[in-house]
Structures
1.
Amino acid sequence: MIRRPLVLFIFLIFFSCQAELRHEKSSKAYSTMALFGGSYTVIPEADFIKDYWKSQYGISIRDYGVRGAGFSILTSEDSIPRQVELACSDMTPAYDIYILWASSNDFIKCNDNVGNLTDYSAYDNYSLSSLGTQCGGINYSITKIKEKAPNALILFLSSIPVFITDKGYSLNCSDSDEMSYFVMMQKKCCLIHGVAFLDQFNGSAFTQQNFNDYYQTDGIHLNENGYKMLLKPQISFFSSVFGI
């Protein structure tokens, strides 16, 4: 008869080995990441979240993000599609993971041309003129990544809410309902391509009442406490898609 302590010991060793194998499998499957976006990915406060990704998932990160960038090429010369082009050039090796982190720049800079789901698709013969819309930029970015790395994991992190206090922005840029439409279209574009989507806008814990605790004074960029709060839904999201 096997004694109970011995059974317990074997049981613990078995599950310890299984956990180690899962971690090893995850590390081998995903070791490199390309990150695209605007200032959300590149400001110093964002290092907290990227350092966590590196340590938790054992990956190296190349951040292609540029301040002011959006998915529309009308929003910035250093748009996210341009970042993707750089990462998908013939001189650049394929990454295991590509993360498209939507900024608030398309919205804040009053590029109200969200576009249609068919922008830059077979329906418009993949017209480069469609890159002036948010949808066109998203479809272009995902298409180019799939061409470069068909077996890679593509993830999309939506825009987060903005609480604009500076009246220098014009038109309807302070209309939160309008920004929710931008995010809704981000999600629909991802559904078409089968890309996993994390809604950081509607699922956000940031509110008009508490944003001063998590945002910098511009009401747009997060402070470190904001990134710590944002990390919570990201952990759950990554756990589901990484299988960890």
2.
Amino acid sequence: MNNTNQPLARLRAALGRKQLIAIAVVLLLGGAGTAAILRMGAGAPANAGHAEAGGHDDDEHHGEAQGHKPHAEGEGHGADEGHEEAGEVRLSAEQIKAAGIVIETAGPATVRSTLTLPGEIAFNEDRTAHVVPRVGGVVEAVPVALGQQVTRGQLLAVISSPTVSDQRAELQAAQKRLQLARTTHEREQQLFEQRISPQQDVQQAEQALREAEIAVANARQKLQALGALPESSALNRFELRAPFNGVIVEKHIALGEQVRDDAKVFTVSDLRSVWAQISVPARDLTQVRIGERVTIRASAFDQSVTGQVAYVGALIGEQTRTAQARVVLENPGNAWRPGLFVNVEVAAGEAAAAVAVLADAVQSMDGKSVVFVRTANGFTPMPVELGRSDGKRVEVTSGLRAGTPYAAAGSFVIKSEAGKASASHAH
């Protein structure tokens, strides 16, 4: 054995076979790592570009996995013929005709702006009487009932009154004195003509006659002031009668009741004419003038009537800060009953609207005002912003262009169909 192999022999002798195998593996792994580092340093730019391209591939694969397929050029939502818009109600021409849907075109119009004020129907105070007996006494008869139609002069109640008895007694005494004074005057006149009595006796008798006549007239006028007839079957009988044709709307009297002379026992009103009392805020007084035409609409039922403002109050209430205006209404059918709340519409002016639709075309969906616009397949709800309205036409400030066809009548049918469609999609 030469000198060169001696160290190796000694190393092999010192280490076992297993240790030698482990050292060889370590040396091989170290050499492979060094070669890989050298290759990465030499090809970094090219590999970086390749890595970037690989990243795009991953994203594309990810997008396809999620179902997001990219659109080709010229391809998009709604491009396909027959695509249904969101919220569209599909109706054929036959269905539109059968439902009575009328199609109009949105366009410019003149909108008459109106001012709506609260009001209430009240009695026509010029044709309403609060009947009081004007004498105290006990009620003997009440031949009428509440709500009864009465005519002028019709008997309402009979009251036994000491006051009326005294007045009739006074009238009868005055009539007796008048009769005696007239007889005395005639006798003195004859005696004077026969030159038996002096002219002074004739003059005194004539004065007594005139005083008796005044006493009788005074007693009659007292009874007339009380509303009592001069002659009656009983001195104390007082008859309370209707002042004019009307309806008994209040009754506060009963048989056997003791009534005072100032008690309001009946209220009689001619309901063929009533008042519409209007509360007008101070800021709107310039638009409510005497003679102004107004429209009165009942809030409880579908009925309206036109009239003229007959009175505008000069004072403003301290609490309400409003003035009272009045419209006199003819009420032949008694449809306008006192106490009924109404809305009074006063014309406030005219204005030109660039785009307007019929008021019946506007519907409410999800808290928004919409107009159903005509499409190829039916109708689509178009949210709109509204402006002035005169009850017939409504100004559209945004959301609709002039010339757009829309459902002017029967839009509620389309709204109903849209609600059914929404319910079916929800399920």
3.
Amino acid sequence: MEKSTEKHIPKIVLGCYPTPLQELENASRYLGAGRKLYIKRDDLIGIGFGGNKVRKMEYLLAQAREEGCDCIVTGGGSRSNQPLAAAACAAKAGLQAHIVYTKDQDTVSRKLGRLLGAAEHVADGSDKPNLMRDIRKTAAELKRQGRSPYIIPPGAASPLAALGYADMVEELAAQAKSMGITLDHIICYGATGNTYAGIVLGTKRYCPGTKATAVAIGRRFSHPDTLCRQARAAAKLRGWDADLSEEDFHIHFSCGKGASYPTEGGREAMQAMASSEGIFLDPYFTGKAFRGLQELNRTGTFAKGETIVFIHTGGLAVLLNSL
């Protein structure tokens, strides 16, 4: 990818960077064959409970301020990390957060959102809730009140947001170089696929010899063609030449019944990480993703002596909600 046409995109720095890159010596021994496992600690990003949404919010909230917005409207279910991350980032950026929740449940995430000053809205309680519809309805009501809302879709999924994880790979590549590490494989969780699209874009630009795989935590996941289009759209925003193809996208399913259901394997992976490294994962996202990494290791995806990086995308609030 050429850098000559690179465009400036407004961004607010909200997190503390670089986030740590740690070797997991005990977990590495379980992989065997001289493989080394590292973890990129985006759960320690320094605002709220951290996680992958913070890097996305840096671009989205910058755009909101550029457009003269005075608040954001977003939403999520009881297992979503995004509403809390959005509320924390909006507070730091000087924007009020309006959060649409799918259920009228007093979860830990909602209680923490109140501490952050977020306004709560409950979505339509119909048998087929449409969260995006309710987010738009809330934004329309705010406009009638004279406010200027900026809508962030569930999952904060957009080409602009994906740039946050292209940035993460640039940061990761610099850390690896300073530590003398060759990055062979990056593993992340996959829900909407937006974080993964940004990671693949970043690997093509900053460490083209690295393979990136998403562990899908739900039965439905974006097709490689859809992910490729999203990554190309993100590259176009920055003016990059994106020599991406569907072959750059690798998906492994480790989801059980689906995104809303923990799996026995995921809980075992959580236990393995906590008991060997003292690091907490969650049962819906990172636990399943780490289980997927273990499965990939058993099926021969990683060669002897390779270095694998697991992206810790947060999830502490979801873990607390599930206890």
4.
Amino acid sequence: MDPALQPFLLVAVAVVMGWFAVGVVWNIRRGNAVLRWMQGGLPRLGERTTLRWLGTSVVELTIQRAKPPFRQVEILVVLTPRDVPWLWLLAAGRGRRDFLIVRGQLVTAPRLEYEVAAPRSWTGRRSVAEARLRRWSEQAEGEHLYLAPPASQAVSRSGALDLLGEAGRSFRGVWRISVRRERPQFELHLPLPNPRQADAGAYFDALRRLAQRVAAGTP
């Protein structure tokens, strides 16, 4: 290597390593703040929660014996990859933000299958693409698309939109609602709430109400 380039290489390495260290600390602090907030609401879903970090950008919480209408619940806190500069830039360019995924197995399996997704959101975009590969029908509903197998298109639409309306009143933004007969039977994607502004108990009560409607088949 040209000796003249060595100082520039050292500076580049220092910048990347420094960015990585700051990004790791930022995500851990952000994740821990959300987890502390969740402690006030998770008992509404179940008494015993298993927690583990998957790298520095994802926290997985699992409730094996959840309260009805859930049988089991998995919650993923997905953070922007702030520790890797090029991944952070890629995520920012695609509009990715910190978000929450709630996946649940229900005591009573849903009768119908459908998706309600915001195509401009990070996960909603992927949901729409997958539904189109399955040749599901779609219909625009404001900022969302309603997607369903042809046999369920007319039957589940009104209930799905009512469910979206209730979710919109309870949460600041809804990226995706997925209802399936198979695992996971209920899935909800939301921008991560601000722990300083949201009440954890009310937040998780709202999650249970949505799942109860799906389990009751209303949907």
